[in-house]
What does this fold into?
Amino acid sequence: PTPTVTPSPTVTPTPTPTPTPTATPSPTPSPTPRPTPTPTPAPIAKPTVTLTTSRATLNEGQSCNVTFTRSNINPSKDLTVSYQVTGTAKYGTNYSTDGNRRTIVIPKGQASSSITVTALNGVVNSGSEYLSVKVLKSTTYKSGASVKITIFNHR
It folds into this structure.
């Protein structure tokens, strides 16, 4: 007799589990670099100019200082101040001043600047005269300040 072959059972392979894909974590995005803005310097406020005098009365031959002071100091810019001198005293007859008789410069980084007023010796006894120094209006500063100086002539 011929032997009968018994077929071997077919092994059904066990399915290999397919791994479930996990999301690959994406890297945390780096912030996009932005240029650092250049700081804009704060504007310096328009200063107020005030006036003071070291003496309000002068006898012939005496002097006083008239000081122009700004309310804030600008470290990088001069301030030119326009002023006017009025009154009954006559320039060259009753008094003199040093420097320019219409403008004064307060230098950058400084708070004030001064002019000197000198009462001149008169030839005639004219009693007293006065002069007023007034800061004129401007777009670069605030003012309207003034001082009055009386000159006594004794001849």
